């Protein structure tokens, strides 16, 4: 999303890494991205990556599309919080590579925190800030810079409020959730070393105490704290 179009992004990646690279195809529209990927890299493209959606059906349709375009040797890589169970469900699908991250250590249904970097804005050649967002059906997010707060009632979180645009939130927004830890590639001193570990431990204790009872369940489900965009 740092580029003005998906085709520009694909061309930049192919120029940097060659046609044996892996192109992410689920940022906007998968069938269109497959066409673009093969047009840019040619039928010798190394692989395409799918990171969202109904993987069993998507993988089959992507395989058929790649074969139709002559990219019969192009591999399909899948990710998206895979574990042993989701991998087993894809046993009959034409998947070449499974990318396991979140569950690589935990597995067996143990809860894990998902950490994902999302680009929301970038500076164009003219110096203007351009808001961007992913448009795949299951991972849509409002574009642009945001400010987030957690609202509390009697010390328990009731909702998380996300303000779009400049930080014009009011005092009733709640506890700020976004803090600058790294700026221009430099880690702030208070987050380094033993002091940083102690700070993180204290923050964890506070955040854990704010969770409602539903936030302590181990099984997957709806978010325990609703998110409100305004």
Automatic annotation (TrEMBL):
Keywords: Ligase, Phosphoprotein, Pyridine nucleotide biosynthesis
Phosphoprotein as UniProt keyword: yes
Cross-referenced InterPro entries: Nic_PRibTrfase-Fam (IPR007229), Nicotinate_pribotase-like_C (IPR036068)
Name of the top EC class for this enzyme: ligase
Protein EC: 6.3.4.21
GO BP annotations listed: NAD+ biosynthetic process via the salvage pathway
Pathway: Cofactor biosynthesis; NAD(+) biosynthesis; nicotinate D-ribonucleotide from nicotinate: step 1/1
The keyword Magnesium is annotated on this UniProt entry: no
GO CC terms: cytosol
GO MF annotation, one: nicotinate phosphoribosyltransferase activity
Entry-linked PANTHER family: NICOTINATE PHOSPHORIBOSYLTRANSFERASE, NICOTINATE PHOSPHORIBOSYLTRANSFERASE PNCB1
Protein's UniProt name: nicotinate phosphoribosyltransferase
Organism: freshwater metagenome
């Amino acid at each position: 999303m740092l580029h003005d179009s998906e085709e520009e992004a694909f061309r930049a990646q192919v120029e940097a890494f060659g046609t044996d690279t892996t192109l992410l195809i689920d940022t906007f529209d998968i069938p269109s991205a497959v066409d673009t990927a093969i047009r840019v890299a040619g039928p010798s493209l190394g692989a395409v990556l799918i990171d969202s959606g109904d993987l069993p059906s998507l993988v089959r349709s992507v395989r058929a599309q790649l074969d139709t375009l002559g990219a019969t040797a192009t591999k399909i890589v899948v990710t998206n919080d895979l574990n042993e169970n989701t991998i087993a469900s894809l046993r009959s699908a034409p998947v070449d590579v499974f990318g396991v991250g979140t569950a690589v250590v935990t597995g067996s249904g143990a809860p894990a925190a998902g950490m994902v970097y999302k680009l929301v804005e970038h500076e164009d050649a003219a110096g203007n800030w351009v808001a961007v967002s992913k448009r795949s059906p299951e991972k849509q997010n409002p574009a642009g810079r945001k400010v987030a707060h957690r609202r509390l009632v009697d010390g328990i979180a009731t909702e998380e409020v996300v303000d779009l645009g400049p930080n014009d939130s009011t005092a009733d927004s709640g506890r700020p959730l976004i803090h600058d830890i790294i700026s221009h590639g430099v880690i702030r001193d208070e987050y380094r070393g033993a002091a940083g570990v102690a700070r993180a431990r204290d923050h964890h204790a506070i955040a854990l105490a704010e969770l409602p009872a539903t936030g302590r369940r181990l099984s997957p489900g709806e978010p325990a704290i609703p998110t409100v965009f305004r």
